[in-house]
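Chapter summary example.
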Amino acid sequence: MRKDYRGVHDLDESWLVDGWESLLRRWMHDAVAASVVEPNAMVLGTVDERGWPATRTVLCKGVTEEGITFYTNYDSDKARQLAATPHASATFTWPLIGRQVTLRGVVRKVSVEQTAEYWGTRPRGSQLGAWASQQSRPAGGRDDLERALAQVSARFGDGPVPVPPNWGGYLLRPGSVEFWQGRANRMHNRIRTTMDATGRWSAVRLQP
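The structure predicted for these 208 residues follows.
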């Protein structure tokens, strides 16, 4: 159960002279080109009220110089945890191309306007599902979920589906971004870039 990673170009500190955003975008583009399934999937880590780490996979829906954006139910476990401790870690993993990126930082809600703009791009089925699901709450069975979806579908009919009042986006603003590139003999490339108190980024190579 081991993979010996190979590659042509070694990850170098100079790749991050323009910051982390352009390299993350490039690697995501490479994942798409390699036909990686859900190339924008990331494992989001938060901390619960007991101090226990909690992780789940969510989809990144935006990458800017400010950070990365994802959307969820504001009554979900992750949302309640972020309300109590507004810090998170997000890891993109692409084993097919031997790369990984981890961002850590502060999380805040995006504006209502930004949420509405993204909501308008969602498939209708996903919009209805957001209304039907009481995310993270116990479910009696699959039939209950299907019944809730049918009720919501009937409620909105053929008309527009508005944004649920308890649904929206988050922006993770990283203070640390680590890029990992698999290499032979477990001598992987790891470069972490961090922001200092003045807002400037600096990169350092880490041992594998």
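To summarize the output: The domain at 13-120+166-206 is CATH 2.30.110.10 (Pnp Oxidase; Chain A).
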